[in-house]
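REQUEST ID: PR-0412
SUBMITTED BY: lab tech R.K.
PRIORITY: routine
TASK: structure prediction, single protein chain
INPUT:
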Amino acid sequence: MSKSERNLEEAFAGESQANRRYLAFAQKAEAEGYPQVARLFRAAAEAETIHAHNHLRALGGVRTTRENLTEAVGGETHEFKEMYPQMIADAEAEGQEGAKRTFAWANEVEKTHAGLYQKLLDDLDGDPGDYPYWVCPVCGHTAEREAPERCPVCGAKGSRFFKVE
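STATUS: complete
OUTPUT:
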């Protein structure tokens, strides 16, 4: 791998993290009554997304939908089979209950994501359907078509889920 490719990977990771961080900062600013600060954080987050996408494309990281789905299944599977179980064990050993909870929630949700990606991959040339997804704002659980009455991962009320078209 060339130095430029390593730099693109590092820049992609940094810009991606900045996007998520700024969106979290925007939520906090909004909650504290600073709407203009929240707007700036959201605007900067969008700009960071543009940077990240540009870096990823320069790396050749956006391929066909079939290849992207295959990569997504692999990534999600790695997370729930290898990455998060070790993180959960580490947090448990250290008595870090907050870390353990967030890792456990993510681990369960990644299983769902892998299954949803695989389902679309398996039917990509058929009729994959046309329906919304619903996302739990607490743990990220993702449901097809409609929100559950209660989140099966964290127990949040289904009325709190948000719709993704």
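NOTES: The domain at 65-127 is CATH 1.20.1260.10 (Ferritin).
REVIEWED BY: pending
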